[in-house]
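hiii so um. not sure if this is the right channel but i have a protein structure encoded as tokens and i wanna go backwards to a sequence. like what aa goes where. can anyone help
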């Protein structure tokens, strides 16, 4: 580590103007912590997961310390990380090339450090300007000369903030008011997104999202998450002025004054070039592995489907044969015919789920039939039907009617799939709760059960195609892993979202959030002729 620090310091003093006048301790003190975090990450069994757990802290100390050195600009801070990346690879590869995985972890770690340092640098400089404003308010009753001096200091601070933001070209840095209207726009935004300052400022930042993202209300959801959790960070498709799309890594941070939300800052990086390089590198080595895994999943899935489809077919066949072989027992023919119908309906539901899961895997949206109905009434109907099979353990909580335009059949399948999932993997005999609620423009549905809960890793992969959790794979519970895929497909077809929250040994909650009117989002089934 000492050699990396010495080499990096020498280059920084040569190439970064502010580093030429900084004392050695001030220049180097924040880097050992970051290098130690990177070394610890590389030593973990799964470095990428370990990096994800540490990414919030990497580079933040460096960004805070650089913000306190007035000679530094944001571009110089980013340049220091570019030098660090060069030195890391030069020193670590002297004895031989690093593995592809270690190179990826180092690249991602430095990238996370750049983003966090830039965000922290911006936040600290913004706090400096805010501190100046508070000082002006407190000094209002003092001498006029002090007021003028404070005003001049504030003006200088704001000017420094404007200069360093406008001087960054590789990152889009802009601010929003609490409603999401753009209030500032740096040159990096102009270069990356194509809109001039005059075209961007005063407009809602939803114009920067794709049509699909706007339909899902991604802009509003991202601001809500940032305000609730203190930050939003994610990758996704964004739209330029010319209509083209690009892959972006975005960080949204709320800004407060006297405890009140006054807006948001947003840092955006264009990942298009990086994504193309990674795809080209990974394509050849991942193709063979993908084929192998897909073949194993397909073979296992076909075996399960063959077994499960045979069960209702066999039951229906046996009931029909009894009717044929015992024509004289007419008093029991209705009973056997009902069994035939019940098993054929079960088979039809299984085939429908398979077909819908296949459509979703191909990237096609589900078609639905919309009508106006009360979601609370539907939840009670499903609870009563399930109680005849699984016992009187289903509860419905609601403040009253929650009416809207949705697919009645689709939401019935959502409730049934989530409830059956809760029966299979929840605590035996414990209550299963359907909770229905409404906000101003949205409706919410939750299915809550007690049990072991899910790990964060399981939650992340839960809605994947043909995915089954670890508990399901270890146990004897039947299933194909398509139920939650269909749940997500129905929710998205109605313009909604689905998610899960779970705590080990405390239970699991699946939630579905829907617009009150799904007609603008849904692809309706064609009318029968």
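sure thing!! here u go:
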């Amino acid at each position: 580590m000492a050699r990396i620090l010495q080499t990096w310091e020498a280059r920084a003093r040569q190439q970064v103007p502010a580093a030429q006048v900084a004392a050695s301790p001030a220049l180097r003190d924040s880097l050992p912590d970051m290098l130690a975090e990177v070394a610890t990450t590389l030593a973990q069994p799964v470095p990428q997961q370990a990096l994800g757990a540490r990414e919030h802290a990497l580079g933040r100390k460096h960004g805070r310390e650089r913000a306190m050195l007035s000679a530094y600009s944001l571009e110089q801070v980013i340049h220091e990380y570019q030098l660090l990346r060069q030195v890391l690879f030069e020193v670590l590869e002297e004895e031989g090339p690093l593995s592809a995985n270690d190179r990826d972890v180092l690249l991602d770690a430095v990238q996370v450090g750049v983003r966090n340092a830039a965000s922290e640098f911006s936040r600290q400089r913004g706090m400096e300007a805010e501190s100046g404003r508070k000082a002006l308010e407190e000094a209002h009753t003092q001498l006029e000369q002090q007021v003028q001096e404070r005003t001049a200091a504030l003006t200088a601070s704001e000017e420094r903030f404007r200069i360093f933001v406008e001087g960054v070209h590789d990152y889009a840095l802009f601010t929003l008011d609490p409603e999401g209207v753009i209030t500032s726009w740096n040159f990096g935004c102009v270069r990356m997104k194509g809109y001039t300052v005059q075209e961007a400022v005063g407009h809602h930042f939803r114009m920067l999202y794709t049509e699909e993202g706007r339909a899902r209300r991604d802009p509003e959801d991202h601001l809500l998450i940032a305000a609730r959790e203190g930050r939003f960070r994610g990758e996704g498709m964004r739209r330029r002025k010319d209509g083209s799309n690009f892959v972006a890594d975005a960080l949204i941070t709320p800004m407060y004054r006297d405890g009140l939300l006054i807006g948001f800052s947003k840092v955006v990086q264009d990942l298009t070039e990086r994504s193309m390089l990674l795809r080209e590198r990974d394509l050849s080595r991942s193709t063979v592995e993908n084929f192998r895994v897909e073949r194993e999943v397909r073979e296992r899935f076909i075996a399960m489907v063959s077994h499960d489809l045979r069960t209702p077919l066999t039951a229906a066949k046996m009931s029909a044969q009894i009717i044929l072989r015992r024509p004289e027992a007419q008093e029991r023919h209705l009973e056997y015919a009902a069994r035939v119908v019940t098993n054929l309906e079960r088979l039809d539901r299984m085939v429908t789920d398979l077909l819908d899961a296949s459509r979703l895997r191909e990237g096609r949206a589900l078609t639905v039939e919309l009508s106006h109905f009360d979601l609370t009434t539907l939840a009670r109907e499903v609870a009563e039907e399930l109680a005849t099979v699984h016992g009187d353990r289903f509860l419905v909580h609601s403040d009253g009617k929650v009416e809207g335009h949705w697919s009645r059949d689709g939401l019935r399948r959502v409730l049934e799939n989530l409830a059956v999932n809760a029966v299979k993997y929840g605590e035996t005999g414990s209550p299963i709760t359907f909770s229905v609620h409404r906000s101003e423009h949205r409706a919410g549905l939750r299915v809550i059960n007690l049990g072991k809960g899910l790990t964060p890793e399981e939650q992340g992969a839960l809605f994947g195609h043909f995915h089954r959790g670890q508990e399901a794979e270890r146990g004897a519970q039947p299933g194909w892993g398509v139920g939650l895929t269909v749940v997500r497909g129905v929710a998205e077809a109605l313009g909604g979202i689905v998610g899960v929250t779970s705590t080990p040994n405390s239970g699991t909650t699946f939630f579905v959030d829907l617009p009150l009117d799904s007609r603008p989002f849904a692809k309706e089934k064609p009318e029968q002729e």
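oh and The chain has four domains: 1-165, 169-270, 277-361, 367-524.
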